[in-house]
Amino acid sequence: MAMSFLCGTAVALAKTATCCIISTGMKKIHISKLMPAVEIARGDLSDWSVGFVKAITTSKSGDKETFAGVLAGSGVLITANGLHAILTADHVLKALPKTGPVGLILLSRLGLFDHQFLLQMDYVQKITVARGSDEAAGPDLGLLVLPRSDVARLESRKLFHNLDKRKIKMLAEASADKIGPWIMCGLVGEMTENTTPLAGMSTAIAFKGLCGPVVVTRVRHDEKFDYFSVEVNFGKGRGLPESYGGCSGSGLWRLVLGEKNGALTVEEIHLGGIAYYESAPHGDRKYIECHGCKSIYENVVAAMADSNAE
């Protein structure tokens, strides 16, 4: 796969006309006022976030093959029960090849940078945490457990979000629609662009995404999993994509905010959701369905414990 990846996240509002309750005395502020807090948190969110790239053959003539790299979804680097993994939607995992290389997009707090990071799928472990028959209703949650060699390579550039140390707090959290703010951070296929290749590379692709506040509008539960819906605007007239394709597997992050000298501060950042489905338009809005805290801190952590025991 002779391609390099140029990647970064663009801070943008995914919802522009509502209020959000924050932790500083349950104070209500307009969501646009959260952007300084998003800027503070964006470095950590980028360090925990990744994307998948598949190579698709576009033409073949004799021994010469032409291919393109396509965004295959987003994910979050996590650790629990002594394992390191990429948490994403199960349908993203199912679309990845069983063998051979898959490119990993490494978002960075340092901004855009050229890189080529390949995972050899022969040596990773795919785990379906759960998958339902209804795409919108879910569940749709999966893990890519990484070998130690890949963990070591990633730790030189990235961070793994520790679920073990956040489990008790997050399972005791109030309902997702009663707390805020929530930040979505992931890659968007529509924002992908070809760029000038480096020496020795046949292709260079710039992958970009969004990191911005969203509003939880609905929470639901079934026997084992919890879910919530986030409302987003869309369309180039708002400076946003028409489709959020590629965001499946994105993290939904709960910020705990404080206030100092009249300015917002970010006290804590916790993974609280994983996106898996984008709705059809509802007027000028769409809804992104997500797994919630129970799904992550009970079911995902349990799946990693089971895998570790094998």
Characteristic key phrases:
single chain, 310 residues, alpha+beta, eight-stranded mixed sheet, six-stranded antiparallel beta barrel, 19 strands, 16% helix, globular, disordered N terminus
Mean pLDDT: 84
- Rg calc: 19 Å
Strand content: over 45%
Work out the count of structural domains. 1
How many β strands by DSSP? 19
Helix count? 5
Low-confidence stretches: 1-26
Largest sheet features: 8 strands, mixed
Distance between the amino and carboxyl termini: 33 Å
What string, H for helix and E for strand, traces the elements in order?
EEEHEEEHEEEEEHEHEEEEEEEH
Percentage of helical residues? 10-25%
Overall structural class, as computed from helix and strand content, comes to alpha+beta
Shape: globular
Could you characterize the architecture of this molecule?
The protein is an alpha+beta fold and 310 residues long. Helices cover 16% and strands 47% of the residues. The protein has one domain (3-309). The chain has helices at residues 35-48, 90-94, 148-155, 167-171, 293-309; strands at 3-11, 19-21, 28-30, 49-61, 64-80, 83-88, 101-106, 113-115, 118-120, 125-131, 140-145, 161-162, 182-187, 193-195, 203-221, 226-233, 251-260, 263-278, 285-291. It is globular and about 65 Å long. It starts with a strand and ends with a helix.
